[in-house]
Amino acid sequence: MNNHQLNIEDDLLTFKTNSFKAEKGSVLHSGIYNREMSASLAAGAVVMLSGFFFAAKYRITAVHFIAALFLFVILFLVFREYIFGEPLLNIVIDKGKGNIDISLDRIFGKKNFSFPLESLENIMQEHKSIAAENPDGIRFVEKIALQHGTVIPGFGKAAELYTVEMEFENRQRIMIFSSEDPSAADDIASKIKNFIER
Questions:
Q1: Rounded distance, CA 100 to CA 120, Å?
Q2: Cα within 13 Å of Cα(104), Cβ side
Q3: Which of 56, 28, 54 is nearest to 41 (CA)?
Q4: DSSP label at residue 86
Q5: pLDDT tens per residue across span 19-54
Q6: Computed over its alpha carbons, how large is the radius of gyration of the chain?
């Protein structure tokens, strides 16, 4: 899935996104270390441990290498989808029923919230600048990278995030979208507002 999906049909709006947190993320650059890399390392570790186990008991042949390759691919897909998968936020605004249902699908369980549509007071947009937490560590990594003739673009820079939040009665806020692209946040906020107000 792209980082968000918004559909409107008559009196029903559905919105899904895996980009709903205003946080910088890992100190490691996403081009170096990401969920795919984590899944690869985990799958590789299981295959290597299995290899040591079988090598101690059996004579290794080409068939074993082919089986190890298939095992790696299957484990990679399983780890990426179920262990290192991204949480998904689902929002359903049903004007017919007068409800807003919000669910958060995570690796370990699901959280559900339900609000009356009339309790929604505002759709808010904010700009957040999140600075790097360890400037000394970042300078050290950049120095090592330069010694190896490598430049990591954007490494250590503050993250500029544009968020969309739903504000309910009693000032309860739920962040529903976050992006480095201000036009994406504007588009989502305006579509939800227009849907509610029409």
A1: 9
A2: 12
A3: 28
A4: P
A5: 888 665 444 444 455 777 888 888 899 999 988 888
A6: 22
Name 53's Cβ contacts closer than 8 Å, sequence gap at least 6. none
Whether the per-residue pLDDT at 1 is higher than 50: the answer is no
Which tokens sit at 141? 């990594």
Here the tokens at position 63 are 């068939």
Distance between CA atoms of 186 and 19, rounded to whole angstroms?
A: 15
Q: Which residues contact 43 (CB under 8 A, 6 or more apart)?
A: 72, 75, 76, 79
The DSSP 8-state label assigned to residue 34 in this structure reads: -
- Residue 96, both tokens: 């017919």
Q: Mean pLDDT throughout 45-64? A: 86
Give the pLDDT confidence score for residue 30 in this predicted structure.
47
pLDDT tens sequence across 123-158: 999 988 876 666 666 666 667 766 776 666 555 566
The mean pLDDT of 171-179, rounded to a whole number, is: 91
Contacts of 125 (CB under 8 A, 6+ apart): 162, 163, 164, 165, 185, 186, 189
Torsion of CA 162, 167, 172, 178, to 10 degrees: -20
**Tokens representing residue 44 in the block:** 């590789």
CA distance 103 to 126: 22
